[in-house]
Amino acid sequence: MWNYEKKLEYPVKIHNPNPALAKIIVSQLGGPHGELGASMRYLSQRYSMPNNKVIGLLTDIGTEELAHLEMVSAILYQLTKDMSIDDIKKAGYDTYFVDHTAGVYPQFASGTPFTASTFSSTGDAIADLNEDLAAEQKARLSYDNLLRLIDDPEVRDPIKYLREREVVHYQRFGEGLRSVLDQLDSKNFYAFNPSFDKKK
Amino acid sequence: MNDKMKTLKRVQMYSFCMTEATLYLDTHPTCKQALEYFKQMRMAYEKAYDEYVRKYGPLKASDVDCDAQEWTWIKGPWPWMNEEGKKNVEL
Q1: Chains A–B, number of C-beta pairs less than 8 Å apart
Q2: Which of A62, A106, A152, A173 counts the most CB atoms within 10 A of its CB?
Q3: Buried b (16+ CB within 10 A) or exposed e, A98-129
Q4: A55 pLDDT more than 80
Q5: Which residue range forms the structural domain that includes residue B87?
Q6: Hey, which bits of chain A come out as E strands?
Q7: Omega into B77 within 30° of 0, i.e. cis?
Q8: Are residues B7 and B31 in the same domain?
Q9: Contacts of residue B79 in chain A, CB cutoff 8 Å?
Q10: ipTM of this complex prediction, to 2 decimal places
Q11: CATH code at position A107
Q12: What are A98-133's pLDDT values in tens digits?
């Protein structure tokens, strides 16, 4: 089970409202490489994992992604807290505003609502862990793209932290995948569907 | 039911009592009776929790005994596993 701690994993302190930035950062909440998909991906996949290292890893990274979901939400909240109607119009935030006002809603930057079709849970450890490696790289590049678009150092700071965590997760998933590959016998050289067939 | 399961059951029971009281207190933050109930349940919970962790290992990663020879956090079985699941995940 889970318990809530009343603190952010890393502080978010943004003083200047900027709905133009919220419009693009929202993708890291509910977009194709966002934190909601990341946490749901890992917390769904852990049940079919074949060893305790990767079960632990998916549990703990999936949990950390929930903390990142809260950090991105805090960034969005602070960027849209005191915005004026003029700010909204100038930033092109009107299309979000009409449905959500200054509410926090998980969606792609393009407006598509969060969808579980952004991730898989295949029941196959090798397929899943390869997806997880790609997912961490995709999240990392999304944060890199955001950093190319953001000037405000108060917004860049937590984004840089989140980017760095993707890099660390990628390293750990690489080790997790290696531990699963090491479990395969020599007949399974091509690593086909090991989780399912070996129980027969 | 073995002692491990009995101790865990007590942790789950007092934990649920606190969950339930938390929701009530969220909407009744000045209710003295509920505050006292929460206090009693928390004392019982902490006692059961400490006993479980001492005898059977961590419930949170931060409970881990660092003087042990390895990181016991990832030791199975995981909470969703029955005996069958335990056998399939050994490493």
Answers
A1: 29
A2: A173
A3: eeeebebebbbbeeeebeeebbbbeebbbbbb
A4: yes
A5: 67-91
A6: none
A7: yes
A8: yes
A9: 1
A10: 0.91
A11: 1.20.1260.10
A12: 999 999 999 999 999 999 999 999 999 999 999 999
